[in-house]
Each structure stands twice: as structure tokens, then as C-alpha cells.
Amino acid sequence: VAATLEQLEAVYRSRLAEFRRVASAIVADVERGRDSVQEAFVTAVRRRSSFRGDGPLEAWLWRIVISHARDEARRRPALALTPDASISMNGTAAADGRLAAAVAALSERQRLVLFLRYYADLDYAAIARTLDIAPGTVAATLNKIHAALRQSLEEVRQ
Amino acid sequence: MDGYEIRAGLDRLVPMDPAPAAWEDVLARSRAGRSRVVSRIGFAVAAAVAIVALAAVLQWGGSRPSIVGRALAAVGDEPVLHAVIREHQAGRYALVDIASGKTTRPEQTLETEIWFDKADSLGHTITRVDGTVDDDTLQTPSGTTNMDGVVYTCAWIAAHPVEATKERVSCHFNGDNGTTPHSIPEAPPSVDPALAVFLTGYRDALASGAARVVGDGTVDGTPVYWIQLAPVTPPPVPGSEPPPDAAPPEPIVERVAVARDSYRPLLVDSQQGPMHRRYQVAEIATVGKDDADFSAPPRRPATDEVSIGSVLNPRTATPAEAAAALGRAPLWLGGRYFGLPLAETRIVTLRTGYSRQSGLAPRFDVGVELIYGSVEHGRPAEGSIVLQEATVPSYALSWDTRTPEPPAGSIMVIGPGFPARLKTGGLYLTISGIDSDATLAAAARALVPLDAGPRRP
Q1: How close B27 comes to chain A (CA, Å)?
Q2: Which of A96, A153, B191, B262 could be stapled to B1 by a disulfide with Cβ–Cβ 3.0 to 4.6 Å?
Q3: Which residue of A has its CA nearest to B125?
């Protein structure tokens, strides 16, 4: 069950913002993230015949996007996420800096779970499919992430 | 910190990217076989750089890029060739509409997809009929596999002499494979010789100058240039070389229509002597090794690996016994049809055998036969009409798994020597002994349950 160009385009257009955001978060750069999403879809178009239809097309595409973004991050090590000064509001700059540091301190898998949950709005099952882990692992990982981020923010407030 | 705060903080860390979608860029790059672009530059700049780079590559002698040069650039220069071609052919079967008696022959679309890496001797060919995978073959230096498992080549047999003997295959007339494995190189991957001129030769012909523009025109309304490839005489198929005194084969002459805007091939017109073929090009491009698909073919479902079907153990039965054996009333044509009396109703055993590789035991089903005419030596005599019926599509009654079932209200006719097929009332029927499509349709209309009494033919 090969994916058609029309199906790929439909997912590209409807989920582009989320794909770019997750990729940008992984490579810590909006433009490199944008490029890696383009690269990912070039791969998806070329390899659409290898889509076996044994799961949702979007999950297949998420795996390709993440794979490309991770390759890009490995090729040129990512800078840490940095708060966008233009949109940080009064009083949030310090917290954002701390949050960025806390995110950087997470393991790669924890970061992927976090990005897919918050930037892509994927549910636990979709995250599990994308990262090839159990849904229970997603829930447990998010609990740990919340605890770590909460702690980092509490330290700022104190 | 709650989920809302985390989300708000993360939103500030990675803002939304306002750049517009660039699907056309995806398509262009997927076709061009170039997946890398310079990061940190806008798409417009990247496109401009790409155009300049392309122009630099294609300009020789200070002239503008030629049509052939642009066609070559459209294929790209990555190491793996990927191509998909489609050919429309008359279907293998005809459908007879039962109500009207009208016959149609649905066209079928044959699709061939190849991945070809000459340097690493890898070839992957997937063929589809009307979108359904019909075969999938992977050729590698260590052997060839398809959906039925290992393809027994002499190289494989040499490397696996004991297994080969067990499978009763050999490259020696005496069947002796010995017991000591030894190494013979696998033949390089190849594609259907009839398609090879274009599939594996198009890029080389463009690059070597063995292609020239011979005109322009339109294909389905799209303006095209016609590029003719140098004639190629197909090499003999290994193992079936013609005798020395045979006439040399006709060369294959192919013309390729490339779109005037994208330089992508759309259509191939192939001529070899009197034989003419046309096929559509859905895709031909080169890709990087990482983007190629040299995955192992999936195994065909074991139940599709049918090797033989047999009708066994016929025994004369009353209508009631036939109905009991079938689990429902058989369909019949009345006590007499076209002057032929119902000579015998009998119950038969339908045996379906599977290939050794499937590991499946034979399957046995029950069928019913109604013979109109006469029976000689236990078999329907010449001129008889025979109905065969079962509640399953048994291979023993010519229902194979790779041919679709005829749609409701239709009879499927494969050709002379094959019984016509019909599915109705939960029964899979075959009708033998009627050659005329109109008569077949009339017979199908006359079918009634055996316990419901005859209808006049």
C-alpha cells in the first residue's frame, strides 16, 4: 500500500507547522529545522512505495522527519535552545533560560517525547508509535520530564 | 509549574516558523535526485543557487543547456536509479454481463518499479497489477529472493549443495550437487530485457550522446520534446541463446517524450520490428544509497502458494445428497438444457496442494458436478455441459487466488480451454462446454436451485 503524492502533500500541508517546530527543536535552529523537514519529505516522496500501510501515514512521516532532524543535529551539533528575545515577556526571560537549560539536560529520548507532546500535540499512542516505544513508557517519561522541568522553574522562583 | 506553563515556555523557546509551505520544492528536489541544500538560506536563494549551479554544470562551450542536458539533469546523478513505469494492457479475462450478454475485456495496468544500483550489484523489482503487488524480487551479490523465497540460481546451489539437493534443484544434468559448498559469483542484477533499454539505459544514453531530440509534440495535452535513444539490439537471454543460423534479433528503437517544462520523461514509445509498445513513466530519478529501497521482499501468504488442484473421488448422488454435501441446494439448469439431459449429478472431493516451501498440508473441500449430455468412462463426453459448484473458490475448480472474483452479475471468461467462472448465491460455479458468451449468459440466467424446480431454457 504505497503512499500517494496526494496523501503526502495533504499531511505536509496540514501538519507542516508541527513538523517544522519539532525539527527546529531537535536541531535548535528554525532554519535548519525547516530544511530538515524539506529533506525528510524529499525522502518520503522518493520512498513512498516503501510505506507498507501497516500504521498511520502520519506516524511513518514523523519517523522520517525525526530521523532527518537527528541526523542534521549530529552532523552539526545543535546549539542549546535559546529563548526568542523578541517574544519573551517581562519576567519570563529568566524562567525561559532556565527551562531551556532544563530541556538541554534531558536525555535525547526525553526531549523527543517532550517535543512530540508539546510541539506536535501527539497523544501517547502516537508518540509511542513514532518512537517505537510502549505507551506506558511515554507516560512515565513525561512524568519524569514534568518533574525535572517543574523543579528547574521552582528553583528560579525561590 | 503546570502543563500550561511548560507549554507557554516551550512556545517561546521554539516559535512558529512563518515561512510558507514549499511542497513544490519537495517535488522538484525529489525528482532532481539532490537532497542537500545549503542551510540558513531562504528557498528563493537556494533555488537561485541551484539554477546557477545547474547552469554551470550543463553549459559547455558557452552555449545554453541543451534539451538532452536538461533531461539528464532531471534524472540526477546519484548512485541508485529509481523508476516506475506503467503499461496498460488488455486484461487476461473477459466479463460477460449476465443480463445483457454483452462482453467486455477490462484493461489492466501493469506497473514495474525498479531500484538499481549497478556499482553494488543490487536490483529490486516490484511488479504490480492494478495496484496489487504481483511479484517482488531482490537481487544481491549473495543471492536472489522473491515473494516465494529463495530463487535457485547456480550460485546459490553451489553455495548450498545439500539444501539444493533436498529441494531437487541442480545446475547439472545428472542432478548431482555434491556436498561441498563452493563459490560462484551471482550474475549482476538485470531487469526485463524488453524494458531495459529505457529503465537502465536512458540515463547512460543521455550522458553518452546516444540520445538526440527528434521533434516535439504533446502527450495528453502536455507539450513534450521527443528524444530518440540509439537503437539497441537486445542481448540473448542467458540459457536460451538462439541457434547460430538464426536471424539476428531486430534492434529496439525507443523514443521518450519529456515534458517541455520539467524535462521529466512522461512516455516511452518502443518499437522492435513489428512489435510496438507504449508505457507511461511515473518516475525516473536517481537517489542516494540511503534513500534506496533494497528491502527483502515480503513472503507471499502461504495459502497463495498453490501448486496443484485435483477433482477426486466422484460418486453419483441424488439431489438431496448433493445438497447435503454442499450445505445448500446446488444450482442447476433444469432436467434438460439445450436438448442435453441431466446425465449425472455427483459429489466430488476437491484437493488443493501447496508448494513444499509453504509447509501447508493439502486442503480438501466438497464439490458438486452436474453433467448435461452423457458420461463415458466416468468422464463427461464430448459436447456435454458441466457445472461445477463449491462453497469455496477451490483451485481444483480453476478458481486461482491471483485472479479477482467476477463482479456480481458477471461471468469471467479466461479463454478457450478454461471454464467460465461465476459467483452467485454463495456458490462458486464453473461452466464448461459452452463457447458462446451469449449462451453462457443465457445459461447463467437459467440457473435455479435444484430444489426449486426447473425453469425452461
Answers
A1: 7
A2: A153
A3: A49
Q: In terms of Cα–Cα distance, which of A75, A84, A77, A76 is closest to A21?
A: A84
B355 within 8 A of B388, measured Cβ to Cβ: no
Could you give the ipTM of this predicted complex? 0.85
Query: To the nearest 10°, the Cα dihedral for A8, A13, A16, A18?
Result: -100
Picking from B4, B7, B26, B81 by the largest number of A CB atoms within 10 A of its own CB, the best residue to mutate is B26
Residue A28 is predicted with a pLDDT of: 82
Query: Taking the mean position of all CA atoms in its chain, how far away is CA B235?
Result: 24
Q: How confident is the model at residue B98 (pLDDT cuts 50, 70, 90)?
A: very high
CB contact under 8 A, A32 and B40: yes
Task: Decide: helix, strand or coil at residue B348.
Answer: strand
For chain A, the farthest-separated pair of C-alpha atoms sits apart, in whole angstroms, at 56
Would you state the pLDDT for residue B35? 40
Using DSSP, state whether B55 is helix, strand or coil.
helix
Of B3, B14, B29, the CB nearest to A24: B14
* pTM (predicted TM-score): 0.55
With a CB cutoff of 8 Å and minimum separation 6, the contacts of B393 are B399, B401, B405, B423, B428
B59 pLDDT higher than 50: no
For residue A158, the distance in angstroms to the closest alpha carbon of chain B comes to 13
CB contact under 8 A, A42 and B35: yes
Backbone Cα Rg of chain B: 30
Tell me whether B316 touches chain A (CB under 8 Å).
no
SS3 A34: helix
| Interior angle at CA B199, CA B195 and CA B205, nearest 5 | 115
Query: How does DSSP classify residue B433?
Result: S
Tell me the pLDDT of chain B averaged across its residues: 81
| B36 interfaces chain A, CB cutoff of 8 Å | yes
Computed from CA positions of residues B142, B145, B150, B152, in that sequence, does the dihedral angle turn out positive or negative?
Answer: negative
Instruction: Answer whether A100 sits within 8 Å of B27, measured CB to CB.
Output: no
Separation in Å, CA B390 to CA B138, B316, B346, B371, B426 = 38, 16, 12, 15, 9
Binary contact (A34, B82; C-beta < 8 A): no
Mean pLDDT over B429-439 rounds to: 89
Chain B environment of A119 (Cβ under 8 Å): 10, 14
Residue B286 phi/psi, 5° resolution? -110, 145
